[in-house]
Design brief:
Shape: globular
Order of helices and strands: EEEEHEEEHEEHEHEH
Oligomer: single chain
Structural class: alpha/beta
Helix content: 25-40%
Largest sheet: 11 strands, mixed
CATH class: Alpha Beta
Number of domains: 1
Number of strands: 11
Length: about 250
């Protein structure tokens, strides 16, 4: 078991974590199989933390093939109680341009065929989890840390979660906008719901890396390459501000 009570799940653009001082790794196994990668033990901003590369080492696992249940179970088994998940997203909201951070307050799940619950067999307990506020109360703690450190972040918005790995069509993005979505990503569901089933606090920090299809005028892949590093630098500043206080609360 790890001494860290907080974990960071890294997504696209965060397969490695500059500033994270690794001290070991846990080769975890669960009833659902192995997680995407070994759990990396270490410190960031002098704070014990576990790190998990959601897409595996080398970023080779596409969103629809991620073993979300094994990932969350492995973190829970290691003693983690709070999870901050980084997610690269496209934006449909002018208040969240490429390079910016956002803390969504809600989400809509458009994925299909993913193992979205631990309650999938007669011998498993059935949990009808409440999911009205999928990212509370950890989201509020992250917002407080960002404000205290003057890290700019957009507070609010709805994150639409699509199947991937392909990007969306312009028509699909228009539908997302009609549904009330501000951002679009591919990995927050079922990750957030599985965390809730395990009793883990979970918040997603959305790193905007491009305008969604049909919104901007440039090449989407070019935007991702251009803005991913900028967004991840802001994410590191946020984690530097937030992780020590979260660890102190757990201690």
């Amino acid at each position: 078991m790890s001494a860290a009570s907080v974990a960071v799940i890294g997504g696209t653009g965060m397969n490695s974590w500059p500033g994270f001082e690794a001290s070991g790794e846990l080769d975890a196994d669960t009833p659902w199989g192995k997680p995407s990668a070994s759990l990396q033990q270490g410190h960031f901003a002098d704070t014990p933390v576990l790190f998990l590369a959601r897409h595996g080492q080398g970023h080779h696992i596409p969103p629809h093939c991620i073993n979300f249940r094994a990932n969350l179970q492995a973190l829970a088994d290691a003693g983690v109680r709070r999870v901050i998940a980084a997610a690269a997203v496209g934006s449909m909201n002018e208040a969240v341009p490429p390079g910016a951070l956002a803390l969504p307050e809600d989400c809509i799940d458009y994925t299909w065929g993913r193992s979205h619950s631990f309650s999938d067999s007669p011998d498993m307990p059935l949990h009808h989890i409440g999911f009205t506020e999928p990212f509370s109360p950890l989201r509020e703690r992250v917002l407080e840390g960002a404000a205290a450190a003057s890290v700019p972040i957009h507070a609010g918005g709805v994150l639409g979660v699509t199947q991937g790995p392909r990007l969306e069509t312009a028509a699909e993005v228009r539908r997302l906008c009609r549904d009330g979505c501000d951002l679009v990503g591919m990995t927050t569901m079922p990750e957030a719901a599985l965390a809730r089933e395990l009793g883990l606090e979970y918040a997603v920090v959305a790193v905007c890396v491009n305008w969604a299809a049909g919104i901007g005028s440039g090449d989407i892949h070019g935007e991702i390459e251009r803005f991913a590093a900028q967004g991840m630098e802001r994410l590191r500043a946020l984690l530097t501000a937030v992780l020590p206080s979260l660890h102190a609360e757990q201690g």
